[in-house]
Structure formats: C-alpha cells, structure tokens
Design goal:
It contains 10 helices and 8 strands. With about 400 residues, the chain is an alpha+beta fold. The termini are far apart.
Length: about 400
C-alpha cells in the first residue's frame, strides 16, 4: 500500500477543518495542499524505478475518495499531479532528466502539475479539434502564446502542461511544460462556479512565454493528436471517486443531523422516525452503491472502455441523486452553510461535468451499442449461407 491509512485520515481531518473557509473565500487552498504534500500523497504514484511507492490507479482512487471527504477541491488539484506521476510510471513520456528534477523539487515544496487544454474558441478537446495555442521555436527552446480555460489550481501550480500546436512546417501538436511565474503568464481570475470554488480553475493567458527545448512531451502529427476519450476512461472513473468522497461527507452530515435534531413535539431524535430511516436507506443505497461500482470496476482490471464509461455515469448519477435526497429530506437546515450539506451538494454537481461530459460519454455508449448490433446482424445474415455449405459438405 503506497500510503499509511493513519496518515491519510489525519490529512483528511486537516482538509475538513479548512474546507468551509476555502469554499467561502475561493482562495487557493494552501492549508489542504500542504497537508497532502507533507503526507507524501502527492507522490504516491511515482514509479518504483524513481524511488517512489509505485501506487496504482486503484490506490489513487482510494486516496482521492478519502481526500474528497475532506475537501474535493483539494482532492481535484492533487489528482492532477497524482495522475501525471501515474502516467509517467506507465508510459515514460517525460524526458528523464526533466522528470527527475521535478521529483527533486517535490521534496522541498508541493509539486503541482496540471494540463491546460481547454480554450475559449475550441472548448473542450474531448469534443474534437486542435489547439489555437502556438509553440514557436526559438534559439534556445520554445515560445508559448495562447489562452486556456478552466485551469484547475492555476495560482498554486508549479507547472502548466500546455497543449499547443507548433509553428513548424508541417506542424506538430504536443504538451509543453511551462513553469508557473515566468514572464508572459497572466492568470485571469474568472472562476465563479456554483461549487468546487477553491479549485481556482481560472483562465490563463500565455504571451511569448520562453521555455527550454526539452520541456515538451509527445510531439505528434495533428492527425493523431485528437483526445481519445475511450483511452482515458479508467482515469475518469478514478476521478469520480473524489465526488464519492463528497457524497460520503454529505451522508455523514445527514446522519449527524438526524441524530442531533430532537423536535419538541417528538421528544426523541428524528433518526428514530420511519421517514428518516427510509431516507437514510435510500442515501446509503446510492452512495455505497456508487462506491461498489467504482472500486469493483477498477479492481477488476478490465480495460473495456464501455464498461468503465458506464460505471462512471452510473456512479456519478447516483452520487448526484444521493445529495439531492439528503438536502430535500432535511429541508431548510440542509440549505444552511452551518450544516455543511449545501457545500457538499454544490461540489457534487461537478461530478459529470469533467470531460468527456455526460452527453459525450452517452454517445460513446450509444455508438458502441449500434456497432454490436451491426456485427451481430452481419453474423446472422451470413449464417444461412454457411449452414448450407455445411449441409452440402
């Protein structure tokens, strides 16, 4: 196990204590991020060959579910770095020298990496298309110019992983490693979301930002640079564990309220009423069911994209429904910031907003279902001919 459960629980408590203030102010959640860094969780998926703990995607999902119970904004910022380390462990797509320098830096301060892919004109690359952001060759490296949207953790990132197209002939597309704080980087504070407020997913503008020549990953022909939503299905399912954690926190808030609320005309906690017992059962069915779906699918080791996408959608919908039942069941107190349930409810609304969004994922499943039917129909149509050959033989 690449993490100590006792340390993980202690880290979650720090996140829990700081979450309400981070949500209210919308400032970068340094208290939570420092706790995750000091616990070593940010580097939990660094490969054994780099001296890491070699955590798997399943390990990452368990960590993110726990962090999500404390503060899903901190969990999401952390997830981007955790997944990047996991990507290097499996694909070795980073230049070795650059990656080792980043690991050395991680010993001194939180190393925070995140992809900057979405653009104002293009939208999410999950729906297809190529970046307008340009990488121009210079005498010493690359110069990056463009604007990105929804860059989670923008203010606290140590490095942006900027998806851009080169000015070469022919052009190539790749990810450019841009250290934060360089001249030409401007963070545009326009993140005003219903939930996940502390993620600070602002726009970032890059104007002639100079980086070294080696700071580039996977330069490829534009024809094969489209985002593969099926290939990312397992990571997207693991990311859903963040919101599972938030749903479990919402469930805890509901149960606590039910045990502490004693109406004068009742004389005992409402937890003893059949209505709240039933509500608790409905919430548990959905939340615990979502946990079962997420982890049984990940732990099965299956790489079937449709199964992973289906699990993500089912779990995400159950998580949203559970939060709605909890708020609706409690009534007005459930909408008060004092209870904390309304913050969990707001955060959970983002569960299926991450790319590929719900409609795109549904389309993938729909096309796959049509393809299965077409293949089966072709087999059925050819069966009589094959049978007649056998009879003749």
């Amino acid at each position: 196990m690449p993490y100590d459960p006792v340390t993980l629980d202690a880290t979650v408590r720090v996140l829990t204590d700081a979450a309400a203030d981070a949500d209210q102010t919308g400032q970068f959640p340094w208290a939570g991020i420092h706790a995750v860094h000091e616990s070593g969780l940010l580097e939990s998926t660094v490969a054994l060959r780099y001296g890491g703990k070699g955590g798997t995607l399943v390990d990452a999902a368990y960590i993110l579910a726990a962090l999500g119970r404390g503060d899903p904004s901190v969990a999401l910022i952390s997830a981007m770095t955790i997944f990047n380390h996991l990507g290097q462990a499996t694909k070795s797509h980073w230049p070795d020298g650059l990656y080792r320098r980043l690991l050395a830096e991680a010993k001194q301060r939180p190393l925070l990496l995140n992809a900057a892919r979405v653009e104002p004109e293009l939208g999410s690359p999950a729906r297809g298309g190529l970046p307008a952001t340009r990488a121009r060759r210079t005498a010493s490296g690359w110069s990056i110019t463009g604007r990105k949207r929804f860059v989670t953790g923008a203010h606290g990132l140590t490095h942006f992983l900027v998806w851009a197209q080169t000015d070469e002939t022919p052009a190539r597309v790749g990810t450019f490693v841009v250290p934060n704080g360089l001249p030409g980087i401007r963070i545009i504070e326009n993140w005003k979301s219903l939930g996940m407020r502390a993620t600070g997913s602002h726009d970032v503008e890059y104007t002639d930002v100079e980086i070294p020549a080696e700071n580039v990953l996977e330069l490829v022909d534009p024809a094969i640079a489209q985002q593969d939503n099926r290939a990312h299905a397992a990571i997207n399912l693991a990311m859903t564990a963040i919101y599972l954690g938030a749903a479990e926190a919402a469930q805890d808030a509901f149960i606590r309220f039910a045990h502490e609320r004693v109406p004068a005309n009742l004389g005992h906690p409402i937890a003893r009423t059949e209505r709240f017992v039933t509500l608790s059962g409905e919430i548990d069915l959905l939340v615990s069911g979502a946990r079962q779906i997420i982890f049984s699918t990940l732990e099965s080791g299956q790489v079937d994209a449709e199964r992973l996408i289906r699990a993500r959608l089912l779990a995400g919908r159950q998580i949203r429904e559970a939060a709605q039942i909890a708020v609706r069941g409690i009534g007005n107190p459930g909408l008060s910031a004092d209870l904390g349930l309304e913050r969990h409810f707001r955060d959970i609304q983002s569960v299926l907003v991450h790319a590929p969004q719900e409609d795109t994922a549904i389309s993938i499943l729909g096309r796959a279902a049509f393809d299965r039917w077409n293949r089966a129909e072709t087999t059925r149509e050819s069966y009589p001919a094959n049978l007649s050959i056998l009879k003749t033989a």
